[in-house]
Amino acid sequence: MASLDSEESERRLVFDGRKLFLGSAIVALVGWLAVAIGWAIATVDTYVGYLTAFAFVTSIALGGLIFLMITYVVRARWNVVVRRLNEAITSVFPVLAVLFVPLAFGLDHLYVWVSGTGLSSEAAELLEHKRPYLNVPFFIGRTALYFAVWIVVAFLLRHWSLARDREAPTGAAPEYDRERTLSSALLPIVALALTFAAFDWLMSLQPLWYSTIFGVYYFAGGFVASLGLLTVLAFAARRSIPGEPWIRPPHFHALGRLMLGFTVFWAYIAFFQVLLIQIANKPEEVEFYVERTRHGWGAVAALLFFGRFVLPFFVLLLRSIKFDGKLMAIVGGWIVVLHYVDVFWLVAPSHATHGPIPNVWDLAALAAVGGTTVAFGAFLLRGKAMVPVNDPALLQSIEYRSPL
Amino acid sequence: MPRMLLAEFSGPTELAEAARALREQGYRELDAHTPYSTEAVREALGLPRSRLPFAIFVGGVVGAALAYGLEWLLVGYLYPLDVGGRPPHMPLAFVPITFEMGVLLASFTAFFGVLVLGRLVKLWDPVFEVDGIESASVDRFWLRIDGNDPRFDPERTREELGRFRPLRVELYEGSPSP
């Protein structure tokens, strides 16, 4: 096993983010230019694409945050080698809060409860009853509150973890008392903020439609996608650490098992939402699925069913595949891509003009939001170790073995 | 007439050490009788992975397919049922039964598969005739070397086993039918 305290191994563990930062900054720059053009000539389409990209990236960061908190609550040890990468995913909330600002200026292009256009008189009256909740100042205030919670939690967990890098290793058994207390206390709050964020940003696109499980659906998708992204990062980090790998096949096996479990969870939530709505068959509820299965959107729904559930499920069932970091990174990347399709399927059909294929403004917004976020994350991680080098549980984590 | 040598050890580590060394010497027909399963022993014996998961998968797929087929046959084809104007063949509504039958048959395969592959409900086995083997279900760990083993030789094997300080070594030479 690699020796943990040699200077040589510490030096090569340091993340040199220049390439990633430059690459994603260029992507972001091109994206922002295209978004600016789109904003001038196709305002609504650009906002729809921007909301899609924003909700997609934020859900992955949220999935990563909840995963990080859960590992502290359950005193997990196996994940210590990938914890810094997990923290890299959760470090981007400040930039996401900034990225929300353009949305705040386009609410009337996105939400009929702001613009009021095309509403029947009955719908307009029903919306009046929702006005105390669905109004612009409260909407923006709530989003600010959600981000305040997420930023504080993500910052503290990462801050404590980075502080440990600089301390001399004590050799004492790890306790993580403050991390566990914070995570246990705030996990419900973070989860509620996520649920309400899903209600606000996505569900209120059809202000008269509601599904109480919607927040869980948004969480489930983001959680699998964040595990997928973590697997991709773990594979990339493993390749850039020469010598004895610290991130070993059992870690990919563990990530793969979680991806399998939460792929099933996502499918379970998606299935019961559609089954219950289909059984009840109430006009105000089926509207959501009617919009998302006609005009070619049915093909996207089918792609989600087969690409996001059937294929990953059967691939991840195979034990030997889960030990292979490269294959797991491919599966993880695939899940991230399909998660974008999922969020796209949630957002875009609410605007009747949008077809089932992402247009150039969707891609521009994705490049802008995604590129900015990745650049920000890479910038924060530069010069830091990719593995929490002084963590007392690191050795235990490196030697993690899969259960038989 | 089955022949075998059995060595009693006080713990799984001692047994695993002996098993690993004997395998390195070329012994192939090794088995263990232990009060509980341990990873060290399984690894030392070099046991292949169980085929049970595959059987369970097949059981689950067959169960799910049968359930879906039955639902389609009954409410979709033979006796079409109109529920609120929905088509008789309504895949969404078929999923819960399909899932549960899949789980049921997978569980049955797992339960009975363990019994069959573990050769359970076998009332007598030659190993029961060995003196002191009862301790394998209390707190002792027994290593068994089968007489079919290419390197098996009662005297030499007993000597080679002795190096690992077993609590005792028993030779079983077969017995008249019980």
Question: TL;DR of this structure?
Answer:
The complex is a heterodimer of chains A (404) and B (178). Chain A has helices at residues 7-13, 18-41, 43-73, 80-90, 93-104, 107-110, 112-115, 121-130, 136-166, 177-201, 214-240, 249-280, 283-291, 297-317, 319-322, 325-347, 360-381, 394-398. Chain A has 404 residues and is an all-alpha fold.
Write the layout of secondary structure elements.
The complex is a heterodimer of chains A (404) and B (178).
Chain A (H helix, E strand, L loop, with lengths): L6 H7 L4 H24 L1 H31 L6 H11 L2 H12 L2 H4 L1 H4 L5 H10 L5 H31 L10 H25 L12 H27 L8 H32 L2 H9 L5 H21 L1 H4 L2 H23 L12 H22 L12 H5 L6
Chain B lengths: L3 E6 L2 H13 L5 E4 L5 H7 L6 H27 L12 H27 L23 E6 L7 H9 L5 E5 L6
Antiparallel strand pairs in B: 1-3, 1-4, 2-3
Helix pairs in contact in B: 1-2, 3-4
Key terms for this structure?
A: 404 residues, mainly alpha, 75% helix, B: 178 residues, alpha+beta, 5 helices, 12% strand
**Overall radius of gyration of chain A:** 22 Å
Number of strands of chain A: 0
SSE succession of chain B = EHEHHHEHE
Strand order of the largest sheet of chain B: 2-3-1-4
- Helix proportion range of chain A: over 70%
Number of domains of chain A: 1
Largest sheet of chain B: 4 strands, antiparallel
Kindly state the mean pLDDT of chain B as a whole number?
84
